[in-house]
Amino acid sequence: FNADINTNDCEVTVPVAVSAVDDCGLPVQITNDMDNQLVSGAGNMVFTLPKGVHTIVFSATDACSNVTEETLTITVDDIKPPTARCSDITVNLKTTGIATVAAELIDNGSDDNCTDQANLIFMIQRNDSIGNPVGTPATEVVFDCNDIDEAQSVRLIVEDDSGNSTFCNTTVTIMDNDSICPPSSRFATVAGLISTSAGEPIS
């Protein structure tokens, strides 16, 4: 049968009901090959199991030392998503006029109950003005002159090795400290006539 991990520990406590009877009516001793638990006749054995597939062999021994064995397979699945942690960052455009931001750059110590931090999968995705994701998650996002001087909303998606995922939102501020972008990317254009308070045009 299956048991699910949904706690911060990468293990689950599994109770297993066991029972055995003998034609002679004498108590039957039940043991297992995983630990030293012993049940006489009927009762529960409790196992603390990590993620994975576990095979336990139960042995029932009567008063005449006759032994019967039964095998139980328990599959422990991790269903708890990672904890996603983001940080705001500021990056400067390169001389090419773009800035590439990898998902790991906005990670601020995301972790998981079962998967090592080094084995987590990180993806990044742009958000719209109200925080909804836009486009397809990728390992990196490219920004350009259209994104400068404003905080760009992005989403960090974190996935563990069981396929559980979660996300957090943060911002990436794109700077053009080297004036790579044309002025039109920085300033608005003012058009029209300029006149005095009396309405006379100024040349």
Keywords:
five-stranded mixed sheet; single chain; mainly beta; 203 residues
Question: What's a concise summary of this model?
Answer:
Helices cover 0% and strands 47% of the residues. It is mainly beta.
Q: How would you portray this structure in words?
A:
- Helix content is 0%, strand content 47%.
- The protein contains no helices and 14 strands.
- The strands form 4 sheets. Strands 1-7-6-3-4 form a 5-stranded mixed beta sheet, with no helix packed on it.
Largest sheet: 5 strands, mixed
Number of helices: 0
| Radius of gyration based on Cα positions | 32 Å
Task: For the record, give the distance between the C-alpha atoms at the N and C termini, rounded to a whole number.
Answer: 87 Å
In percent, how helical is the residue content?
A: under 10%
Strand content: over 45%
List the uncertain runs: 186-191
Strand order of the largest sheet: 1-7-6-3-4
| Topology, number of strands | 14
